[in-house]
Amino acid sequence: MTPFTREAVEPRPLEHRAFLFGGMDDFLGTAVPFVREGLEDDDRSVVVVVKGTRLEALRDHFPGCVDDMFIDADAFYDHPVRTLRSYLELVKAKDPRRVHALAEPVWQAGWSERETLEWARYESLINEVFQDTGASALCPYDTSTLPPRILEHARRTHPRLVQDGGESESRRFAPPREFSAGVDRTRVFPTPQDSEYLPLTSHDLHELRQWVGDRADRHGLPGQDAQNLVTAVNEVAANALRHGIPPVGVRLWTDGPDLFCEVGDHGYWSDFSPLAGFVPPKTALESGFGLWTVRLLVDLVEVRAGWDGTFVRMRAGR
Amino acid sequence: METLSSVRRPVRELRPGDHAWLAYSGEDEQRHVVGSFVRDGLDSDHKVIYLAGSDDVDVPGMNGVSPRPGLLTVVPLADARRPDGGFDPATVLKVLASEIAGAEDGDFPTIRVTVDMTFVLERPDGLTELLRCERQLERAVCPSTRVTAICQIDRRRLTPDARSALAASHSTFVTPNPEFSDSVLQIVRTFSPVGLSLLGELDASRHMVLDEALNAVLAASRGEEIHLDLAGLGFIDLGALNMLADVAARRSGTGPLVLDSMPVQLRTIMETVGWHMLPGLRLGSV
After folding, report:
1. Number of domain units in chain B
2. Cα gap B114→A306, rounded to integer Å
3. Which of B209, B238, B266 to mutate to test the interface with A (most CBs of A within 10 A)?
4. Mean model confidence pLDDT for chain A
5. Is residue B2 part of a domain?
6. Nearest C-alpha of chain B: how many angstroms from A296?
7. Given this model, what pLDDT does residue B33 score?
8. In this structure, what CATH number is given to the domain that contains residue B201?
9. Is A231 close to B246, i.e. CB distance below 8 A?
């Protein structure tokens, strides 16, 4: 067997490290050698996704590099499931070269606890989705500005930590399935008393689509977002009718700029995985394509698979 | 297909007094539409008058079953052959008119007439001649409470002038019967390109009928690209994308399923998913 064949067959483990830094000098002290290491290795393809001022500083250090190597993190991190999909596309596009990414997730001060948790889940999912790609990701976390709970997420979602010039194992690391299950447990799940309800009794979902579409319009969702929501609700409802136990129905309510639709049935989703619909399928022919697409189409999907039934809540914002 | 003044109507909805035209794209479409017209007529004990090149012609829609004697009359074009070898449309029309008159004297509540008029167009000054024939047919059919007629024309031989003249001289433009039709979804065969046109909304409760219609198209196809015209589709569910990708995978090697005229909101959903997720499906004309 030639060395080339052996290398192609061997799984290439992912390196996923959180880089806890304080201030620009500390940042550049590790980020510059990391980028250089990738550039000097013909087997690797470098991507730099960091926030504005740090992006400019790095660009200055590598004046000879192509511009599309540098991506503004604010534009890239727009929606956890979509960002995961974009990264996977990037990894595929670079194959057989391995992606060598300096990847700084964005944390907005104005986010709800829920949104922060979904982005923490995203960091955790990286370990699952890219496990055998040979990619190397170094994720900068600014200890001088980020709140302690986000730094705690960093330790829980990265198997290794880089700090003060040294590297160590993260003792707080939680495997993705465990972390994701933890995120699901933190949900608040009351359905408002004044929500509207539509029972679903037939596989013909024309009435449901009209019902959701009308309310999405009235709420002021832009046309495409309304179409996406209708498609997502239709998918979850069709699934509940096929696999769930009646009665099946949809609750709908609004909260500020957000519109919520929750499809419920009385079946117990016994083999529910906290990773369901997060790991992109290879093609539409694989199972999991439906829920994955639903997660792409709306702002947030929350699944509760309990003894009292299965409930899938979808949120779309104005 | 541009039809100008004619009203589009599936062949099964033609009524006595309708003088319709069919602009077929090839033999498949011609036999599909005319076959429905002939078969439905014979099944309902209507008189069918079929003008053909010769009397041993393979009449479409027969399915190998002989009709009740007297129900089907094939009028061979050869009868109208002139000494110089050409055809005389006036003679053809005369034969046809006498057949219609004969049938009207008979016991038939409804009379179906169909003629491929393309041969007239091929004569010198063909269009003028064709329109003269059409006026004669119009006089025979329109006032009638018993006669329905379809004039067939090979679309490939039509100039824009001929097309508008024909549209002006027929009340109705005949289209294939839908493969499926209910209050939410309509599926119609297309022949150029080969495929289906979908109107309305497609969800899981109608996957089966789409699958059946697609299988019928695939069975009749000769390995060419299959096109789905989605201009009239307001909704497509994710399961249908999965199903289409599955159909495409089953006929791997014979070219993709092409999705034409996809409404922008549906296209955006496909783009969100990523076309690489949908192997065997391709976006066609926008």
Report:
1. 2
2. 65
3. B238
4. 92
5. no
6. 7
7. 96
8. 3.30.750.24
9. no
Mark whether B119 and B244 lie in a shared domain.
Answer: no
CB B74 within 8 Å of CB B52: yes
| Nearest-neighbour CA in chain A from B125: distance (Å) | 54
Token pair listed for B14: 């033609």
Q: Which residues in chain A are contacts of B238 at CB distance < 8 A?
A: 231, 235, 284, 289-290, 293-294
Quickly count: other Cβ atoms within 10 Å of residue A84's Cβ. 23
pLDDT at residue A243 greater than cutoff 90 = yes
Using N-to-C axis directions, what is the helix angle for A113-129 and A148-157, rounded to 10°?
A: 20
Same domain (yes/no): B125, B184: no
Answer whether A238 sits within 8 Å of B201, measured CB to CB.
Answer: no
Q: Are residues B109 and B188 in the same domain?
A: no
Q: Which segment of A192-196, A219-223, A305-309, B232-236 scores lowest on mean pLDDT?
A: A305-309
pLDDT, tens digit, for every residue of A262-271? 999 999 998 8
Of B201, B238, B249, the CB nearest to A293: B238
Q: Does A56 score more than 50 pLDDT?
A: yes
Q: Which range marks the domain in which residue B130 is found?
A: 7-175
Using pLDDT thresholds of 50, 70 and 90, give the confidence band for residue A7.
Answer: very low
For residue A41, give how far its alpha carbon lies from the nearest alpha carbon of chain B (Å): 29
To the nearest whole Å, the CA of A7 is away from the closest chain B CA by: 26
Local mean pLDDT, 10-residue blocks, chain B (286 residues): 69 93 93 95 92 77 83 79 69 80 83 88 82 84 86 91 88 94 96 95 95 91 90 96 89 82 95 89 90
- What domains appear along chain A, each with residue ranges and CATH number? 3-184 (3.40.50.300), 196-317 (3.30.565.10)
Q: Mark whether B89 and B66 lie in a shared domain.
A: yes
Q: Which of A98, A140, A110 is nearest to A123 (CA)?
A: A140
Whether B12 is covered by a domain: the verdict is yes
Closest C-alpha among A64, A183, A206, A173 to residue A121: A183
Residue type, B161: D
CB B226 within 8 A of CB B216: no
Question: What SS3 class is residue B223?
Answer: coil
B15 & B149 share domain: yes
Say if the Cβ atoms of A235 and B237 lie within 8 Å. yes
* B267 and B217 belong to one structural domain: yes
**One-letter identity of residue B47:** K
The alpha carbon of B111 is separated from its chain's Cα centroid by a whole number of angstroms, namely 19
